[in-house]
Amino acid sequence: MITLSRYRGQAVGVFGLGKAGAATTTSLLAGGANVYAWDDAEASREALRRTYSTARILPIAQWPWRALASLVLSPGVPLTHPGPHPAVNLAHKAQVEIIGDIELLFRACPRATYIGITGTNGKSTTTTLVSHILKSAGRRVETGGNLGTPALSLAPLGDQGIYVLELSSYQLDLLKSARFHVAALLNVTPDHLDRHGDMEGYFAAKRHIFDRQKAEDVAVIAAEDAYTLRAAKLLAAEGEARVVKVAAQPLLHGIDLREISTLTGRHNWQNAAVAYAAVHALGVPHQAIADALRSFPGLSHRMELVDEVRGIRFVNDSKATNAEATANALAAYDAIYWILGGKPKAGGIEALTDFFPRIRHAFLIGEASEAFAKTLDGRVEHTRCGTLDVAVQHAAAMALAHAAPQAVVLLSPACASFDQFRNFEERGEKFRQLVANGEWRAAGDDAHPPLFPSRSEQRHAS
Length: 462
Fold this sequence. Notes:
Blueprint: E1 11-15, H1 19-30, E2 34-38, H2 42-51, E3 56-57, E4 68-73, H3 86-94, E5 97-99, H4 101-108, E6 113-118, H5 123-136, E7 140-145, E8 161-166, H6 169-172, E9 182-185, H7 193-196, H8 199-207, E10 218-222, H9 226-238, E11 242-246, E12 251-252, E13 255-256, H10 266-280, H11 286-295, E14 304-309, E15 312-316, H12 323-332, E16 336-341, E17 359-365, H13 369-376, E18 382-386, H14 388-402, E19 408-411, H15 424-437, H16 455-461
Parallel strand pairs: 1-2, 1-4, 2-3, 4-5, 6-8, 6-9, 7-8, 9-10, 10-11, 15-19, 16-17, 16-19, 17-18
Antiparallel strand pairs: 12-13, 14-15
Helix pairs in contact: 5-10, 5-11, 14-15
């Protein structure tokens, strides 16, 4: 945990009390700050009250705004679009700086090395891969940010340590002085437009990852779409950091990525190329990178093979929360029994029509069912299942009955999870459990156990 002692005796506001906000409150209180906290959700406020009796949990109108040193805003709270949150307006009126927990980490541990990774898709895999390579090479590493572990829950590091941080556009909007020694941009495709106004606003937020870089720093860009190509051109013209452009290819400096099962598909070749450039910039030698790539265990909930039953593979791609992410999975498999749906995003699944011939049947869940059914009508046979348990049961039964070569039951929702689950992790865990416990498993399958234990089984075994 990071102790924010620089705020000792000062008043600090924390708005948004999810994981990041709770970790920020913990760090500030440990450092002796006077914390004023609030969340629009009563459950989050009550959880904080039970944990911290010293935090002043008050509506924002009751905060001493003129006395606040900073407002630490949760990334999920609107900063500009569709309109500033009232807490943002109050901070502007009182001339209080608005920052996020990533900025606080940088201020608390300024001597560490920072690697920042962003992009519309592939952030988590690339962040995890970079961390894996560095740890395999013997470096001291802490990994977090948007990946799941709040920045201020990480261990403090000095000049021999490296923070590897996955960064969302929301988090990048809240930076003021943080500087990334290695900054990586994977791709930019439409997403979160409700929070940034339009693609230009979204692109501008992504570009913040390169702010304040110096001549000795490195900007790694997978220059393969219109926006990443533009970013590379702009950065080269500015001449601040060294720009390294990479592209997806099956052979990466002599390493055949097609032989690495956890890096399947062109999108993972892009992730690997960015990871290679990022760690190479910090002096990790080629052979160490090659060995680590081959030992990479993969990322949970991202094209994760959770079991194989009578030749049918069950793949958990719950982290695919938009159409572009799902496209990567659809491109990687044939004979797909596709489970999709949830809370829809702008554009739906129209962008996936080129992959429809690969789909044997689609099984629809959640709020998006009706809209997705209209897109699939006349193109892909589909069934409205409503819930994930029904979809897994139907998809498994149909795939096993058809027994098509290389068949895959694929959960790749192309949607957010919030209509039926707390997050994509919970959705993916539910899929794992349903596959492990399916009644259809025993029929002719010798009831063999799943390839991997569930998270709960892992916890009980540890």
